[in-house]
Specification:
Chain B: One of its GO terms (cellular component) is membrane. The structure holds 2 protein chains of 2 kinds. In chain A, about 25% of the residues lie in helices and about 40% in strands. By secondary structure, chain A is of the alpha+beta class. Chain A folds into 2 domains: about 170 residues, no CATH class; about 170 residues, 2-Layer Sandwich (TATA-Binding Protein). In chain A, a hairpin with a 4-residue loop joins strand 16 and strand 17. The two termini of chain A are about 35 Å apart. Chain B is of the alpha+beta class. Chain B has 2 domains: about 110 residues, Lipocalin (Beta Barrel), CATH 2.40.128; about 120 residues, 2-Layer Sandwich (TATA-Binding Protein). In chain B, strand 5 and strand 6 form a beta hairpin. Chain B starts with a helix and ends with a strand. Classes of the chains: A alpha+beta, B alpha+beta. At the A-B interface, strand 12 and strand 13 of A face strand 2, strand 11, strand 13 and strand 15 of B.
Chain lengths: ~425, ~270
């Protein structure tokens, strides 16, 4: 559970800075925010009101600290991550949080705004005595980032006064060019993608890469689609030719008690941690929970990859497109899709790539309004859909033909409820 | 110093040392062997748990082996023509019928024939008669009968309709997943179930199998009241999911009861297999 965006604000109509994900300051601020969330969630909110986009836009612009998540995080997961034992369960979950420590509008108490899919909750906390996210820390982080990076004239959408289809709390360089540096991404696919082999030694080599050891309880095989398979009596690993790996529990589910989301999440996270620990491919990858869906007595969690660009530039997220499985028409829209019950992980599919950045930085200048216009003119379905833009970002976009590519440059990506639209950035 | 005596003492000392080392080496080599006491104790534990065993308990605890198959597709036409002759109806790609006879192909390497009308006469239900009949039929259908051996010949619980089961055999190992099951009614052939994949090679794995006495003690004591008639080892595959082929198999222990029920346990994990 990591925020996908942390924004530092000097207030409405003033400067806003996006703190690079994965940077030292990112973790300092997120750790500080956790302290405030812990303090807030112990009590009932001071005020609960139905979600209003304008109102939330103003909160996002006004408050010094703003945290966005890619999806609604269920309150049970939040409590587990924050190690909150006793809480008043007024909030169903959270997807955005704004924090104003020592808020002058609330008698210099700490004010925390939490947004879930329905409501805005305001907590005025007086019991938190720590110094996390105080004015001094704000200034330190703000000054260091303001000086370290090229100018980014970020605004919150509501400040522009425009009646566009953009979310009111969206932060973007609305009024002028943004200059940013990115490196190129190198991608290497998992193992040999030549498909099944008749050599046990070759199977062992693949298994070593997949499981981090040679497991004698897994027997090699192949499937009707030409994928390499390792199976034992209750599970199957399948390595597809497009570098997608699939794990399936094939054993007996036993007595099916109702699945609790936290149990399922813990099982999913445990599986992924194990996967990361034994994989040589995921050292420099950060994972962001991007979607949670309830299945029939299970939960399906999706995680997206981000890769550290290095030298304080933070993480750049990856957009994986058109990674399909042979038995499905639907593309995998996330790097990891994992389904779990209270008892176990029953399926996990992940795009297994060895990703590296070449650390040669190149400057990119981009203009948000221009790129949005270009996206609309290039994509008929985008202009016809008339659906509001949900989000945007700079991503490394990867499709199956590029799984073994050394020159993946960043792209501007727009998201609406039907999908994503990407355009490569023009570098200098 | 008496050098001659010293030399003699040293020679004897080395001879004794070598003998001691040889004994240790022998014990190390044979150290993994299952002792007679272990087998007797296993039998006692089984009896205490109301599990009766009427056969010797195998002592094998050596290496596991892996059997690799060649992908095999049965000659459908030969099988259909051999069993149904002409004028059959194709119900679907995998189902063919003629009167009371029906053939179902379930995968590339399996078919099932059934007949409720006894079109194929077998004049006696004896083992030898069935063997002669099957030999002739195998020639017509392209079944490599020399790669099978009779595994059991039994009557059904009511005492009628004998069933002959042949299992695959490759390099002296039983291949449990290759089989022919023939059921004979009084008036003739009732059904055939046939599964065959061509074995290609056997390779050893750097892992030892679990001796079967451990499986008997830990798993079979959970089935009180059964009578174990046979215990043997052979190759059996793990099914996986529906899209997975089974081209590699490891060793499995088979435990057969007097009632004809078979339990298969993976010989390296000890897990009960379907």
């Amino acid at each position: 559970m990591l925020p996908s965006r942390i924004v530092l604000s000097k207030g409405y109509d003033n400067d806003h800075l996006i703190i690079p994900n994965g940077s030292e300051e990112y973790y300092t601020l997120w750790n500080g925010a956790q302290e405030y969330l812990k303090a807030a969630l112990k009590d009932k909110p001071t005020r609960t009101e139905p979600f209003n986009e304008e109102k939330w836009g103003i909160i996002a612009a006004n408050n010094p600290y703003y945290f966005e998540f890619k999806t609604d995080i269920n309150i049970d997961i939040v409590k587990w991550v924050l190690n909150i034992k006793n809480s008043v369960d007024s909030v169903m979950g959270l997807n955005k949080v704004a924090i104003y420590p020592d808020d002058p509008e609330n008698g210099y108490s700490d004010t925390i705004y939490i947004k879930d899919s329905n409501n805005i909750y305001t907590y005025v906390v007086s019991g938190y005595g720590g110094a996390a996210l105080d004015q001094k820390e704000f200034e330190t982080v703000y000054e260091s980032h303001k000086n370290n990076f090229k100018i980014k004239n970020y605004k919150i959408a509501i400040e522009t006064g425009s009646k566009s289809l953009l979310p009111k709390d969206m932060i973007a360089p609305f009024t002028s060019n943004s200059e940013e540096e990115y490196t190129n991404l190198n991608s290497i696919s998992f193992g040999s993608l030549q498909g099944p082999t008749s050599s046990l030694a070759e199977y062992d080599a693949i298994q070593l890469e997949l499981l981090g050891e040679i497991r004698n309880d897994y027997y090699p095989d192949e499937d009707v689609y030409g994928a390499v398979v390792f199976k034992k009596s209750d599970s199957v690993y399948r390595l597809y030719k497009n570098s997608v790996i699939e794990y399936k529990y094939t054993g007996n589910q036993g007595v099916t008690e109702r699945t609790r989301i936290l149990d399922a999440y813990q099982k999913a996270v445990g599986f992924i941690m194990e996967l990361k620990a034994r994989s040589r491919h995921m050292d420099n990858i950060n994972l962001y929970l991007s979607s949670v869906k309830e299945g029939s007595n299970s939960f399906i969690f999706k995680f997206d990859y981000s890769i550290a660009d290095g030298e304080g530039h933070g993480d750049v997220p990856l957009l994986l497109k058109d990674f399909k499985l042979p038995n499905s028409e639907q593309s995998l829209d996330s790097a990891i899709t994992i389904e779990a019950t209270s008892k176990r992980v029953i399926q996990c599919r992940w795009v297994a790539l060895k990703l590296e950045v070449n650390k040669i930085f190149k400057e990119y200048t981009w203009n948000f309004p221009e790129l949005v216009d270009r996206a609309y003119s290039l994509n008929k379905e985008l202009s016809n859909a008339n659906l509001p833009i949900r989000d945007y970002g700079i991503y490394y976009v990867l499709t199956p033909p590029e799984v073994n590519s050394t020159m993946i440059t960043p792209s501007f990506v727009l998201f609406n409820n039907t999908g994503s639209y990407d355009m490569p950035l023009d570098g200098k | 110093m008496d050098w001659k005596q010293a030399k003699t003492i040293l020679i004897w000392a080395f001879i004794v040392l070598n003998l001691v080392l040889a004994v240790i080496l022998y014990q190390n080599t044979k150290g993994g062997e299952i002792s007679r006491d272990t087998i007797i104790n296993t039998q006692k534990i089984l009896e205490q748990n109301n599990v009766h065993i009427e056969c010797p308990i195998p002592k094998y605890n050596g290496k596991d082996f892996i059997l690799q198959y060649e992908e095999t597709v049965l000659d459908k036409n030969k099988i259909i023509n051999g069993l149904l002759g002409d004028n059959y109806s194709k119900i679907s790609d995998n189902i063919y019928e003629k009167g009371t006879e029906k053939i179902v192909f379930n995968s590339g390497c399996y078919f099932e024939y059934s007949d409720s009308g006894s079109n194929k006469k077998i004049y006696s239900q004896s083992k030898s008669e069935v063997e002669i009949y099957l030999k002739e039929l195998a020639k017509k259908l392209g079944i490599p009968l020399d790669e099978f051996q009779l595994d059991s010949f039994s009557s059904s619980p009511s005492g009628e309709d004998p069933k002959a089961v042949y299992k695959g055999i490759y390099k002296n190992y039983t291949v449990f997943d290759n089989y022919i099951e023939v059921e004979i009614g009084k008036a003739g052939l009732k059904s055939i179930k046939y599964q065959y994949k061509k074995p290609l090679t056997i390779s050893s794995r750097d892992i030892k199998v679990i001796p079967v006495y451990q499986i008997l003690v830990t798993k079979m004591t959970g089935y009180p009241g059964i009578d174990i008639s046979d215990v043997d080892i052979g190759f059996k595959g793990i099914k996986g999911d529906k899209d997975t082929k089974t081209l590699y198999e490891g060793l499995s222990w088979r435990i057969t009861t007097n009632q004809g029920k078979e339990f298969y346990f993976n010989a390296t994990s000890g897990e009960l297999m379907e």
